[in-house]
C-alpha cells in the first residue's frame, strides 16, 4: 500500500509550552502506526528543535517545517533554508501552502526552486496545490491544479519525484468548515494521479501519496481517507486539538 500520512499544520498557532502539551498528549495517546502509516507535525520553525525528541518518541512520527527558502544561504534576512533544516535533522517540509501563495505571493516558479533546494538537501517536499472558489465554480479546477503541479514539479526526474508528497487543498475548504465532498476529493485525487501517470508512468504515480486538506475533522476523516486515491490529510485547525488529531490519525487506511 502507498504511504498513508496524517500531517498537522499548526500554522502560526500555539506557544512553545502549548505545543509541548499537545505533543505530550499525542505521544501518550497510545497510537501504534502500521509500517505504511506516518504522522508529520508541521510546527513553526522555532519549535523544530525543542519538540524533536518528544515527537520522535513515537515510531512513525516526524517533524515537518512549514516552508523553506528558495536559496541555500546568503543575504536573505528572516529566511530559513533547506540546508539549515537538514542540519537540524528535519526531513519534511510543506511548500506552496495557499496562505503563502496568497500573502507572500509565492508562484509556481519559486516553488519549483524550493522543491529543488529541498530535494538536493535530501528533504521531502509536501507540495500543496488547490484552486480558489471562482475556479471551482468556473469548472476549470482540473487544469488549474495540473498547471500548479506541472510548473513546480515536472522538471524533476523520476528519482527526485519519488520523494515528493502532494497535498490537494481546495482553497475554499481551508479553515472554512466547508469540506470537499468525498466525491469531489476522490475525483480530483484521481485526476492528479492521472496527470502523474502521464508524466512519470503508472508505477511511480502509484507510489506518490496525495493528501487531502481543507477542514478535515475527526468526524469526516474516515470517509475522506477511505477514498482509493486519498492517502491521508494535511490538517490545520483540527491538528491543534489532541483528541481530534488522534482520531484523524486513527482514520488512516489500515
Ligand atoms: C491547512 O492548513 O492546510 C488546512 C487544510 O487547514 P484546515 O484543516 O483548518 O482547513
List keywords for this structure.
alpha/beta, eight-stranded parallel beta sheet, 41% helix, 254 residues, 12 helices, binds phosphoenolpyruvate, TIM Barrel
Structure description:
This protein has 254 residues and is α/β, with parallel strands linked by helices. It has one domain (4-250): Alpha-Beta Barrel (TIM Barrel), CATH 3.20.20. It contains twelve helices and eight strands. It has helices at 16-27, 48-55, 82-87, 98-103, 108-120, 133-137, 141-153, 158-161, 182-200, 202-205, 221-225, 242-249; strands at 4-9, 37-42, 61-64, 92-95, 124-129, 165-168, 210-213, 232-235. An eight-stranded parallel beta sheet has the order 3-2-1-8-7-6-5-4. Helix 1 (16-27) links the parallel strand 1 and strand 2. It is globular, with a radius of gyration of 17 Å. The termini are close together. The structure holds phosphoenolpyruvate (PEP). Phosphoenolpyruvate binds at residues 9, 11, 169, 174-175, 213-216, 234-238.
- SS strand fraction: 5-15%
Task: Give, in order, the helices and strands.
Answer: EHEHEHEHHEHHHEHHEHEH
> Briefly, what CATH class?
Alpha Beta
Q: For the record, what is the CATH homologous superfamily label? A: Aldolase class I
Rg, nearest Å: 17 Å
SSE diagram, text form:
Blueprint: E1 4-9, H1 16-27, E2 37-42, H2 48-55, E3 61-64, H3 82-87, E4 92-95, H4 98-103, H5 108-120, E5 124-129, H6 133-137, H7 141-153, H8 158-161, E6 165-168, H9 182-200, H10 202-205, E7 210-213, H11 221-225, E8 232-235, H12 242-249
Parallel strand pairs: 1-2, 1-8, 2-3, 4-5, 5-6, 6-7, 7-8
The protein binds phosphoenolpyruvate.
Amino acid at each position: 500500500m502507498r504511504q498513508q500520512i496524517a500531517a498537522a499544520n499548526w500554522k502560526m498557532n500555539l506557544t512553545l509550552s502549548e505545543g509541548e502539551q499537545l505533543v505530550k498528549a499525542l505521544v501518550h495517546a497510545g497510537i501504534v502506526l502500521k509500517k505504511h502509516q506516518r504522522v508529520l507535525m508541521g510546527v513553526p520553525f522555532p519549535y523544530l528543535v525543542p519538540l524533536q525528541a518528544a515527537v520522535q518518541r513515537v515510531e512513525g512520527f516526524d517533524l515537518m517545517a512549514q516552508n523553506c527558502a528558495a536559496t541555500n544561504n546568503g543575504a536573505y534576512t528572516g529566511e530559513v533554508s533547506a540546508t539549515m533544516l537538514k542540519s537540524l535533522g528535519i526531513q519534511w517540509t510543506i511548500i506552496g501552502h495557499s496562505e503563502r501563495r496568497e500573502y507572500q505571493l509565492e508562484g509556481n516558479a519559486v516553488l519549483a526552486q524550493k522543491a529543488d533546494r529541498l530535494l538536493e538537501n535530501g528533504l521531502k517536499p509536501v507540495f500543496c496545490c488547490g484552486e480558489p472558489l471562482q475556479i471551482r465554480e468556473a469548472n476549470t479546477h482540473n487544469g488549474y491544479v495540473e498547471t500548479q503541479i506541472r510548473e513546480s514539479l515536472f522538471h524533476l526526474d523520476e528519482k527526485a519525484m519519488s520523494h515528493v508528497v502532494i497535498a490537494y487543498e481546495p482553497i475554499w475548504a481551508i479553515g472554512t468548515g466547508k469540506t470537499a465532498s468525498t466525491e469531489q476529493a476522490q475525483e480530483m485525487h484521481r485526476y492528479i494521479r492521472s496527470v502523474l501517470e502521464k508524466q512519470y508512468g503508472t508505477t511511480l504515480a502509484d507510489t506518490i501519496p496525495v493528501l487531502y486538506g481543507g477542514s478535515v475533522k475527526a468526524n469526516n476523516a474516515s470517509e475522506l481517507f477511505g477514498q482509493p486515491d486519498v492517502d491521508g490529510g494535511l490538517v490545520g485547525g483540527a491538528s491543534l486539538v489532541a483528541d481530534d488529531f488522534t482520531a484523524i490519525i486513527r482514520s488512516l487506511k489500515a
